[in-house]
């Protein structure tokens, strides 16, 4: 999207504002599809947790996507967006058996990552198809908080527990129709991913009625100019060839599944915030915006990088700024960053704001959350209204207290 279009949207819908470019989401989806074009059965399940707006889900459904969900609420969002249950996979962690059974009753594909839950579910529902999430004990991902396939991770059933896993399946007579793994996000080394895939193939060979293998996702996208990213074309060639060979060994064609979130929506997202103050201190020039980590927490939570541009003065002389928010504690988006000269009232644009940005926002400091806009076919469409104070107090139950009575001694 062009700076002038983003400025116009901020003028129309106010700031702070999230904007998503539908064309970029579509091109990323097709890029992944084309990379695995030689695989007979490919299924892309969008990871809802990245960006769960119903209009975005409907856009992806139009392209043929399925959904990867981690809560019953995400399943319900998918159904509301028009997805059929068989196009949704549910991969929870640490949830109750009651929730898993409630989702299973909706006809959604269940994915279990815990031996205890697997045994309980198999004993009660042996005919319900179940996918198993394994932990391959492979360290991958750009940050310890988003690396989930290593030995100390809470996710997945350890590959070293395979004998126990097989015993549960045999004793319950349950139907295993898929094997799943997810090593982590921001994968840099394709060879590490392929190594983990071999572990998944080995695990899959123990089950004779599989329908699909789910390789998770975690493909890295570029955050700045010339930044490294996952080469999905190379991965498609290498993993696609190996997958087809495995299917030949297995005796029938299986479906290769992925569950990308960030890869599909990160680069499509723009976060727009207005500069309230420019503050010079003894060592720093701060640009304080009309937002904070209540709207975009990733820099504070993960140390993530978001390229920031002054779209009100894109060709101005560059100076060094620390861009900070209005939350009443340390609230830093970027430190000592080169940005075109900033004046109060300018509009800053944060790139790569499509994934895990609005979906992790909150009402901290009793601030309202921003509006969301989808840029589709040359026009901005409001897909979430800006919250109001009434939204903040909507579910609060306000008690009445009697005036204190003075006690005479």
Summarize the structure.
By secondary structure, this protein is of the alpha/beta class.
Oligomer: single chain
Uncertain segments are: 140-150
CATH top level of the largest domain? Alpha Beta
Looking at the overall shape, the CATH architecture of the largest domain is: Alpha-Beta Barrel
Largest sheet: 9 strands, mixed
Would you list the SSEs in sequence order as H and E?
Answer: HEHEHEHEHEHEEHEHEHEHEEHEEEEEEH
Tell me how many strands there are.
Answer: 18
Q: So, the CATH homologous superfamily of the largest domain? A: Alanine racemase
Q: What is the CATH T-level topology of the largest domain?
A: TIM Barrel
Counted up, domains total 2
- Residue-averaged pLDDT, rounded? 93
> Which value, in Å, is the CA radius of gyration?
24 Å
Structural class designation? alpha/beta
Please report the number of helical segments.
12
Q: How would you describe the shape?
A: globular
Distance between the termini: 73 Å
Helix content: 25-40%
Proportion of beta-strand residues = 15-25%
Essential attributes:
globular, 12 helices, 2 domains, eight-stranded parallel beta barrel, TIM Barrel, single chain, Lyase, Ornithine Decarboxylase, Chain A, domain 1, nine-stranded mixed β-sheet, 409 residues, 18 strands, alpha/beta
Topology, pairings included?
Layout lengths: L2 H11 L3 E5 H14 L6 E6 L6 H9 L3 E4 L2 H9 L7 E3 L6 H8 L4 E4 L2 H10 L5 E6 L21 E2 L3 H11 L3 E5 L9 H15 L7 E3 L17 H19 L4 E4 L3 H4 L3 E12 L4 E5 L8 H5 L5 E3 L7 E7 L7 E9 L6 E4 L20 E6 L2 E6 L4 H5 L16
Parallel strand pairs: 1-17, 2-3, 2-10, 3-4, 4-5, 5-6, 6-7, 6-8, 8-9, 9-10, 12-14
Antiparallel strand pairs: 1-11, 11-12, 11-16, 13-16, 14-15, 17-18
Helix pairs in contact: 2-9, 6-7, 8-9
């Amino acid at each position: 999207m062009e700076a002038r279009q983003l400025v116009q949207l901020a003028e129309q819908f106010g700031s702070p504002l999230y904007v998503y470019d539908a064309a970029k989401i579509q091109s990323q989806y097709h890029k992944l599809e084309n990379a695995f074009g030689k695989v007979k059965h490919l299924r892309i399940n969008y990871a809802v947790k990245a960006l769960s707006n119903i209009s975005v889900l409907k856009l992806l459904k139009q392209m043929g996507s399925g959904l990867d969900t981690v809560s019953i609420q995400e399943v319900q969002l998918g159904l509301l967006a028009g997805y059929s249950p068989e196009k949704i996979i549910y991969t929870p962690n640490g949830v109750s058996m009651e929730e898993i059974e409630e989702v299973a009753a909706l006809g959604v594909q269940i994915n279990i990552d815990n031996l205890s839950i697997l045994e309980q579910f198999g004993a009660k529902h042996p005919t319900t198809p179940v996918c198993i999430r394994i932990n391959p004990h492979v360290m991958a991902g750009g940050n310890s908080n988003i690396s989930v396939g290593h030995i100390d991770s809470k996710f997945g059933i350890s590959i070293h527990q395979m004998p126990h896993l097989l015993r549960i399946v045999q004793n319950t007579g349950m139907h295993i129709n898929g094997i799943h793994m997810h090593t982590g996000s921001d994968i840099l080394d394709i060879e590490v991913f392929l190594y983990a895939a071999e572990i998944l193939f080995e695990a899959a060979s123990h089950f004779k009625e599989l329908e699909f293998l789910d390789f998770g996702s975690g493909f890295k996208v570029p955050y700045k100019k010339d930044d490294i990213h996952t080469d999905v074309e190379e991965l498609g060639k290498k993993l696609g060839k190996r997958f087809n060979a495995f299917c030949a060994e297995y005796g029938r064609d299986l479906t290769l599944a992925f569950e990308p979130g960030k890869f599909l929506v990160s680069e499509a997202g723009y976060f727009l915030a207005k500069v309230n103050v420019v503050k010079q201190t003894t060592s720093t020039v701060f640009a304080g915006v009309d937002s904070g980590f209540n709207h975009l927490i990733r820099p504070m939570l993960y140390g993530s990088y978001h390229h920031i541009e002054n779209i009100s003065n894109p060709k101005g002389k560059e100076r060094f700024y620390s861009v900070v928010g209005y939350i009443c504690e340390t609230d830093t988006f970027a430190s000592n960053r080169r940005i075109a000269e900033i004046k109060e009232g300018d509009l800053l644009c944060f790139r790569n704001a499509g994934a895990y940005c609005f979906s992790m926002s909150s009402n901290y400091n009793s601030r309202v959350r921003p509006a969301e806009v989808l840029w589709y076919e040359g026009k901005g469409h409001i897909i979430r209204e800006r919250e109001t104070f009434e939204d903040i107090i909507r579910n609060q139950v306000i008690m009445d207290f009697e005036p204190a009575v003075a006690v005479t001694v």
